Amino acid sequence: MGINEPLNRKLRMALVGGGQGSFIGRVHSIAACLDNRAVLTAGALSSNPERAKSSAPDYGIEDSRAYTSYQELIESELALPEDQRIDFVSIATPNHVHFEVAQAAVKAGFNVVCDKPMTYDLAQAEQLLETVQNSDVVFALSHNYTGYPLVRQARAMVLAGELGEINAIRSRYIQGWLRDSIESDDQKQAAWRTDPTKSGAAGAFGDIGTHAYNLGRFMTGLLPEQISCHLKTYVPGRRLDDYGTAVIRYENGALGTVTASQISHGRHCGLEIEIDGTKGSLTWHQENPNEMSFRRNGKAHQILVPPPEPEYQDRMGAGVCRLPAGHPEAFFEAFANIYIGAFDDMVKRAAGQPFDGRDSIYTNCYDGVEGMYFIQQCVASSGQDAAWVPLRHEAARR
Amino acid sequence: MGINEPLNRKLRMALVGGGQGSFIGRVHSIAACLDNRAVLTAGALSSNPERAKSSAPDYGIEDSRAYTSYQELIESELALPEDQRIDFVSIATPNHVHFEVAQAAVKAGFNVVCDKPMTYDLAQAEQLLETVQNSDVVFALSHNYTGYPLVRQARAMVLAGELGEINAIRSRYIQGWLRDSIESDDQKQAAWRTDPTKSGAAGAFGDIGTHAYNLGRFMTGLLPEQISCHLKTYVPGRRLDDYGTAVIRYENGALGTVTASQISHGRHCGLEIEIDGTKGSLTWHQENPNEMSFRRNGKAHQILVPPPEPEYQDRMGAGVCRLPAGHPEAFFEAFANIYIGAFDDMVKRAAGQPFDGRDSIYTNCYDGVEGMYFIQQCVASSGQDAAWVPLRHEAARR
Amino acid sequence: MGINEPLNRKLRMALVGGGQGSFIGRVHSIAACLDNRAVLTAGALSSNPERAKSSAPDYGIEDSRAYTSYQELIESELALPEDQRIDFVSIATPNHVHFEVAQAAVKAGFNVVCDKPMTYDLAQAEQLLETVQNSDVVFALSHNYTGYPLVRQARAMVLAGELGEINAIRSRYIQGWLRDSIESDDQKQAAWRTDPTKSGAAGAFGDIGTHAYNLGRFMTGLLPEQISCHLKTYVPGRRLDDYGTAVIRYENGALGTVTASQISHGRHCGLEIEIDGTKGSLTWHQENPNEMSFRRNGKAHQILVPPPEPEYQDRMGAGVCRLPAGHPEAFFEAFANIYIGAFDDMVKRAAGQPFDGRDSIYTNCYDGVEGMYFIQQCVASSGQDAAWVPLRHEAARR
Amino acid sequence: MGINEPLNRKLRMALVGGGQGSFIGRVHSIAACLDNRAVLTAGALSSNPERAKSSAPDYGIEDSRAYTSYQELIESELALPEDQRIDFVSIATPNHVHFEVAQAAVKAGFNVVCDKPMTYDLAQAEQLLETVQNSDVVFALSHNYTGYPLVRQARAMVLAGELGEINAIRSRYIQGWLRDSIESDDQKQAAWRTDPTKSGAAGAFGDIGTHAYNLGRFMTGLLPEQISCHLKTYVPGRRLDDYGTAVIRYENGALGTVTASQISHGRHCGLEIEIDGTKGSLTWHQENPNEMSFRRNGKAHQILVPPPEPEYQDRMGAGVCRLPAGHPEAFFEAFANIYIGAFDDMVKRAAGQPFDGRDSIYTNCYDGVEGMYFIQQCVASSGQDAAWVPLRHEAARR
Fold it and tell me: Whole-model pTM?
């Protein structure tokens, strides 16, 4: 079977952002190309034209397609013959630039894979969703943790009813790298993440709290109703939250808790989730992603691994596992699983076949609106002494 | 050195509660006698006189000192010559009986080791505290998890400033045994715990949420200011909460979260705590009690074990470890550590020496008041849509 | 039900060894008394008469029954009326003294619980076995790790055929406390263990290698045929092995490996075992004793815990678990499980009932002979460049 | 900085083997291209010409460079202009074909990355080594586990003396997938691995025992002297070993143990290693590759993670970590680290710079000879009742 059949060619990728000093741009590039289904062809790697040019050789992008702005990229690529033109744009800029790049790319008819959070604020997110809805492009949002095989399996198990009715979701994302005011030393990653003009209304809660929230939504499909949130800034002089905790009431009566920290010494990417249902419970930890606990009263505790043993194989396609059990796959492979889901739809689109951009296996524009709404409401609640505020966004995915 | 020097004899124990079908009575008995410093001598093992008598041989209590009520026990023991009379009373009845037994024992001049929660409600707790304050007895409360060596070490490290200023405490106690309505089948442990006339105002939060809260208090010494709490009852027909989560504001600005569940499939005694300070962070899990993580940015992650390696030995006396490293000690030994702390003070009292019943290493009457206040305020907050309510009790330990 | 019914009294224990500075004497005392079925009544706590006397108050032994030699202990106790006389002798002396004490106690008709290794050499062990066989006493040997609930469950599962035919056993006991020549500093525990006149023919292999070997024998019941062993002494000047590895051929064709180390930095009691059968495999680690992995191809990996979930309850009586799941029991409780097995037989004997001292759940005199034979053959093989030597002892338990 | 500077272009890869049904061919392809330094350009994907052609589109190889034999590949590529010609050949065929392909490729002047074991037998390996020595090509052998960051760190720590003199190495590779005779069902992976005409003289010991042995050699650099080995075949009808254990004497007096199993139920890639030195000990497990235990008596147990904390950074370049701590990297990334080491040398060669193909960070032809010698001597020893045989190969890497 050819690559991206029936296209039988690799998809052509453009990267916006990702210039020298970037972390997430390189991740997008590796993840997108991991399965040999895409090739990085063009880029607008920095808002600084010089750096945009000088970073291109790092990625093997030819100088002729190393653009000095996303506008130039879109314009120039549109001018190319269709069989050379890029298929999709990956957006790896700081948060506040996502919106304009994404809008422009979608309007130009390019598929988009956007880093999260999707936009700077909710208004932008809603506007972008409308743009996407009015287009026929594929739009994926890199809530990359949803790409882990066991996260997919958890979702499949919940949807198949194996956990029964869901009562509780506890999720956390615990880091420590912002324990000190490293933004004062101009550490690039820290600087924009703690700057409200670039990062958005929230700090830790926007950066990683959204992942913890999204993970629970993805695994369970429960619909949120209200939230009460406390955001704290522990590092003196910092302008955004570096710690916070929220309680969520779901429509079905379930209770959720989300905690995010960037000030916990020695912690790295402590994204953990526990789900309690009437028939079973699951726990999963991102730093040891190839094990998931499944427990049921009266039965032995099970450790599930990917690819699943035969008794669980009907719960998850093996499609997102590249290796036999015991050969660990990790962060890049999970990230790549977001991409291959989107690629499947990009190929369908290119082949003139229908695809469902709303109920997709990869996180998408609807998740993006929901994420921005989550951030907005967390900040609003925190500003009112943790009062209950709504967390139900009709336009976002149901 | 003799036992309980300068007494040079074992302390004589009376057990109230603990008759057939009891779980915690046996635990008290084993824990108290583990180190050969006490001998179980008398008992009023059940409120049912027949069972009180018939349970005595299980414990090796002579029939003549197997009383049919706690009143009879106190009266009869007081009538014995001092060199035969019991030294202390351990209370292992259902919660609603704690108060009257404890009051009577203290008033009679007997030392007391009381199971937690200390009383049925706050008013009783405050009254009991006053009684204890007006006496010279030793009063210990079995928040047994504070007896684990690594919990003691955590406290010592925090007090020594090794974690810096504390910013966050996250603690949880996750169980699953009440996932189904086993109280309907008259399971004895479930029946009284889910009955508000016996258990008190709260279910899961009273039974185990208090442990999770107390553990954070014990390890850090932070003083609480306000709490917001959500209690849920997921099992149909149940009269008390079986799940809940609370957020605590401490006086120093730190944020605490406490979650308790009795409806999480396959979970047993998942008491976990994480503490974040400006200089370091700790995590500990009761089900694997002989490991504690200590992390500091820029330093390798350390796994601390008991007894501590030399570089940590000044932080904790070896007094609560009976075995060399690698020989695991567990639940009973931790429970016994509460007892040996109290024994030290009982011996001092008997020898006419002063002791500090307030700032003791074992949890005590002040913790008891605080625990009852915690329960009351959790229920109050939960009843007002999780509103903030005070959590500062002046009379309780500061 | 009374204690030790139909005796309805505690058993009276004498301790030989265990004076000041001893580790294992205290362990025997705590373990024996943990379940309130025995009381420490007499002792000959040291071969040094002065220390024998002065150590007695530590244990609460009355001066009148604090003897200055085991001979005096046996003689004096025999002279006491039967209702005061001790029931059993626990032997916690250095290895080279075990034999004479045990011989004398058995000949005097006292039950014995002997620390392992049973004797100084095989000849003594065989002689002791004969003595025991010619008596009617209960004789237990404290291969204490066989007392862990999950070790018992493993045995039950193997015997019930749930693992199928056993093909392989891999066991190890890894420590680090003898990494340096602490015997040169006269550390008491190190001094006798590295002294061939006190410890016996082997060092690490006698002290802990025997545990690793015995554990595999206990769990599987496989009968050994031949062994090839390499013993090493890494610490300069040491007179006995501090590291070694052996390969065992079992009669059924299975292959066993046993490794013991006392020179592995930072390791404490790393006793681990893995068992491979045609139908399933098990792994267990002493330092985390309340979890056992059970794996079968095509099925989810299971983590078994004590007390077992209902689906496993027919494989192990709950008799050796004192607490519900999640309340960890550990070293002392496992040790106590050896004692309560022996107590059951002591009670039977006292009541004139038959008991099977050979096929007992507690490790016994037959295991003791086997252990001494194992040590002897390991040393023999190692002395011949790891040649194969027999490991089949007809007199030992089959 | 450009890709593969000063070449400033991707390296062109040819894959031999890897046709439909192959596992390891896909792994080589993903690993080689992961860092965007190589592009898969040509292939001879199967010895079956039809399958060789039909598999090419899977990899995006153009039909014109999808050859039907490795001979055709080499001949045709040599005929291409240098700026189109492949730079290296990756060999992912069954073991018995490695030699002829590698010989031909090396003789034609192509760099080679060969899957392990390097050849079918030792004679071939020695001959290939000679060929490589007489050439100027880069030759890498995919002992891929040596590419894990923490394995590299272990090596660096040992070489820097942080563990002191090494006394013991214990390594194991435990799998379960050949528990049943799946070769009888013609499962492709099982069929050739259990066929002595394709796999070589050993089964499990050749396939995975070599990894366990090589890992110890790589981490410590200890030189072997003698080996005693027992190979077993537990599955009826199987023609090669599926279980085995070996003891190794190193020149410095250290003792090594290597165990390999393919019949342990539910085990996947249980490659574990423990190293004991006079100053410290290390343990690492491939299935949880981002943690390594470092222990020293008297110091807290440390859990090392990649990239290393500052206190360990001088021990390992960050060059093999693509992500910050907490973002797990795994099997593919480790495999890719073998490739990027080889790429560095390929670039040097292309630029006319010297490189050291013997003392390379990637495993190479010398490791290959050593591996084949290891297999030969294991089989020889096992055939002589586990007699000691030499394990010192002068031509292999010292």
Answer: 0.97
